[in-house]
Amino acid sequence: MPGKESPSNRTPPLGELEIAVMEALWRAPGQSAKNLHATVGSARGISVNTVQSTLDRLYRKQLLSRTKVAHAFHYQPQVARQQLIAGLINDLLGRFTNDARSSLAAFVDAADQLDEGALDELEQVLKERRGEGTSS
Questions:
Q1: What CATH number does the domain containing 29 carry?
Q2: How far apart are CA 83 and CA 75, in angstroms?
Q3: End-to-end CA distance of the chain
Q4: For the chain, what is the largest distance between any 2 Cα atoms, rounded to a whole number of angstroms?
Q5: 27, 40, 100, 108: which has the highest count of C-beta atoms within 10 A?
Q6: Contact criterion met (CB below 8 Å) for 31 and 25
Q7: Domain housing 33
Q8: Cβ-count burial of 13 within 10 angstroms (0-12 exposed, 13-18 middle, 19+ buried)?
């Protein structure tokens, strides 16, 4: 998916509902606010209008595109999940540019907390990026 960068080249901060909406659209692109409300809104006890406002914010942040279908917009992610996560991580790490060692150590600690295989997977990805490993 082609990504659009914000004018400041920073990934915009996202709230919990915005992340839930993005996750739903990565799983099933092309949904309307009404469809997304059924997926992420009703369980939270929020209105269709709140979901619509969230979609509009994500559209203005250039994370979604939209197409008019009949009387409703249908939304598509403009960035891949991995691209968005990488942007958020880069923005965070960029705040600590004078201490790369601590930033990297914190990143490894975070990977270690995901599950037992996360560090192994991280190591394999790093090897592949450096051209030392084989792709599976």
A1: 1.10.10.10
A2: 18
A3: 23
A4: 53
A5: 40
A6: yes
A7: 1-95
A8: exposed
* Reported pTM: 0.76
> Is the domain of 75 the same as that of 106?
no
Please identify which residue in the block is written with the tokens 């082609």: 2
What confidence tens digit (pLDDT) does each residue in 30-89 have?
999 999 999 999 999 999 999 999 999 999 999 999 999 999 999 999 999 999 998 888
Give start and end residues of each alpha helix (H) in 28-99.
33-36, 48-60, 81-94
For residues 10 and 55, state if they share a domain: yes
Q: What is the mean pLDDT of the chain?
A: 86
| pLDDT tens digits for range 100-118 | 788 778 877 887 788 878 7
Whether 71 and 40 map to the same domain: the answer is yes
What single-letter DSSP state applies at residue 11?
P
Sign of CA dihedral 99, 101, 104, 108: negative
Helix, strand, coil percent values for the chain (each to nearest 5) = 55, 10, 35
